[in-house]
Amino acid sequence: MKRTIFNNQFLPWLLLAPQLAVTFIFFIWPAAQAVWQSFLREDAFGTRSTFVGMDNYWRLLGSPEYMNSLQVTAIFAVSVTVLSMGFSLLLAVAVDRMIKSAQVYTTLLVWPYAVAPAVAGILWWFIFNPTIGILPYLLDQVGYDWNHISNKRDAMLLVVIASAWKQISYNFLFFVAGLQSIPASLREAAAIDGAGPVKRFFTITLPLISPTTFFLLVVNIVYAMFDTFAVIDSTTEGGPAQATNIMVYKVYFDGFVGQNLGSSGAQSVILMLIVIALTVIQFRWVEKKVEY
């Protein structure tokens, strides 16, 4: 294996410069601005800023609306992660058992990932629309009156289904790759020893795809916490009665609609710290149960 040696010590930095510039301009600088903004309070006309220290954070921690947003985010993130990963694993196992038509099914199942989150939200909004949607009509036939505009539970179900549907294709690709990397001889040996399909799945397949599952667990939690903003905005806009007002949407609503930039900045910092803490916890404790 030949090792590359740069005679010019500035050449590596020159090659890294475009990526470093993008990272600084679009990630580090906005994050630093949010942290600084969280310590300020602007007047009603946005002409003057006052340093208030941790006051924005104390107000958030004492706000019932923000506590409700934390609870809604936790329920939403767990629901989206479990639904999207569970359903995609089921589809991956089904495709893995196919021989001739596996590639066709894989191609068809990947297509939804190309749909923009806002488009996915509008699509499911039309499907679940109480007036013109097909699913409310079918549910009405069995005696369930669906109305996500006024019913909190229906609204949460709508955004969870729309967000999970958008992520299933991504999870599916990784699960299929993980399943296909398992040597067939292991499952054949277990079958010869008398292990049924269910036992083979839980004793052989699931442990061997645990690295893939762990990776997707981290990715899906981050996705639910950040990338579902467009779905919420295009379906429920945080309603009804704050039932779907997750933290990332509250950051936008308070900052851009309510023009409370100090509170919005503090919420951004708290959200960032929560995601970092969850990621550290997963790598520190959950990863110990992963079989590599």
Automatic annotation (TrEMBL):
Alphabetically ordered keywords of this record: Cell inner membrane, Cell membrane, Membrane, Transmembrane, Transmembrane helix, Transport
Residues annotated as transmembrane: 12-32, 70-95, 107-127, 155-180, 201-226, 266-286
Instruction: Quote the CDD domains the UniProt record gives.
Output: TM_PBP2
List localization entries. Answer: Cell inner membrane; Cell membrane
Record-annotated ABC transmembrane type-1 domain positions:
70-282
Q: Which InterPro entries does the record associate with it?
A: MetI-like, MetI-like_sf, UgpAE/MalFG_permease
Full protein name: sn-glycerol-3-phosphate transport system permease protein UgpA
Name the source organism. Answer: Paracoccus pacificus
What gene, per UniProt, encodes this protein? ugpA
